[in-house]
Amino acid sequence: MPLAADAPPARQPLYKILYVQVLAAILLGGLIGWLWPAFATHDFIRALGDGFIKLIKMVIAPIIFCTVVSGIAHMDDARKVGRVGVKALAYFEIVSTFALMIGLMVGNLFPVGHGVGARPDAAAVAGVTAHAPHKGFVDFLLGVIPDSVVGAFAAGDILQVLLFSILFGFALMALGEKARALRAIIDETAQGVFGVIAIVMRAAPVGAFGAMAYTIGRYGPSALENLVGLVALFYLTAILFVTVVLGTIAHLVGFNIFRYLAYIKDELLIVLGTSSSESVLPQIMKKLERLGCSKSVVGLVVPTGYSFNLDGTNIYMTLSTIFIAQAMAMDLTFGQQITIILVAMLTSKGASGVSGAGFVTLAATLTVIDPVLVPGIAIVFSIDKFMSECRALTNIIGNGVATIVVSAWEGELDRTRLHEVMAGRAEVQAVPAE
Q1: pTM of the predicted model, to two decimals?
Q2: Do the beta carbons of residue 417 and residue 428 sit within 8 Å?
Q3: Are the CB atoms for 378 and 125 separated by under 8 Å?
Q4: Which residues contact 256 (CB under 8 A, 6 or more apart)?
């Protein structure tokens, strides 16, 4: 359906706009967490945030299955799937390397960890490091293959679900017209799951309130006293990456990064409140389609990016590793710092958009670099929650930009729609049909 340019849509009252509701909930949650920490740390308040994330996570696997299968099954040939996949992975690795290098350089240029004189207690993080994935490359590849299809969906493992979805999509493509009815069922199922998401999103302000109130009440401003330098440096580095690196990429493709951020402001505020980029996966896919990206490209790039394109997590791992080494008065050699980049490129692939996953991958990275550093993650344990929001925000922004880039690379980006929607001159009434 064409863009409606005759008249601007009627404005909703502010209190009915989702991002306004979420923003108000975040501010209220932060205020209550600060003034009444005992109330804010009650299990009921924590359950509001955790419950919302669980509601979203329960439909992530079906969404990925339906969108990936539909995207592949509707393509004319397998070569396009391979071409899109190779382009997406090439882009992910290049940009991820930039993110890792920026985190490493900033950590060396601004040694905020020096002088901490930390003597961390390893027992403080034993429960977390116990789950750190000590995997080699072969183990990582084997881990992508599920023991069973049902197990992959039950565990919600994005990579395993993605693998089965790609294989199933190719199978439907090979069947051709024989699979028309099944393709239609999958397409309709996707619409039904998106309908569930629309219902769940009504609870987004409640989830954001609970998550923010519990975070502030549990850790409080005092948690930042000795580590505010790291938190500030991480946020500034992420902002630098988004505005300079992603901004330059966006400019080369033909759009403004700040207009894109304004377009997805609802999703960014939800991520800010929940600390999880998975909480907006279905909505961001729909918005990218409405922006003019090909449905098939969106269906392949976005889910893949949730495991292979984690810019915020990459910055966090290199910056935090340097900080921990400085805090423990350990001088890392040039070779060790290069190893950080190589190891982080692997360990970050297991960190999906789940809140706290970056902390576990940090433990895995430190284990490979130097086991002596592992107890040092206790230094950043208390403030990890404050940095998880920035990790998730950077990840979701990077994935959106990647999808637009690959769509343009494939010649499947409706640039007229892109500019009209970003400029706010038209409201997209429907996602264009494939």
Answers
A1: 0.66
A2: yes
A3: yes
A4: 250, 422
Indicate if the alpha-carbon torsion angle 12, 15, 21, 24 is positive or negative: positive
* Tokens found for residue 350: 């297991």
**CA dist., res. 279 & res. 395, Å (int):** 12
**What is the predicted pLDDT for the residue at 247?**
94
What are the tens digits of pLDDT across the range 56-81? 777 777 877 887 787 777 665 566 66
State the sign of the Cα–Cα–Cα–Cα dihedral 136, 138, 143, 147: negative
The rounded Cα 167 to chain-centroid distance in angstroms is: 24
Ramachandran region, residue 333 (left: φ > 0; alpha: ψ -120 to 50; beta: rest): beta
Q: How much helix, strand and coil, in percent to the nearest 5, is found in the chain? A: 80, 0, 20
* Amino acid at residue number 55: L
- Give residue-wise pLDDT tens across range 126-176: 554 455 455 555 766 777 788 888 888 887 776 688 788 888 888 888 887
How many DSSP H helices and E strands does the chain contain? 23, 0
Residues with Cβ within 8 Å of residue 3, at least 6 apart in sequence: 416, 417, 420, 421, 426, 427, 428, 429
Q: Backbone phi, then psi, for 413, in 5-degree steps?
A: -115, 120
Domains of the chain: 14-423 (1.10.3860.10)
Tokens representing 102 are 């920026």
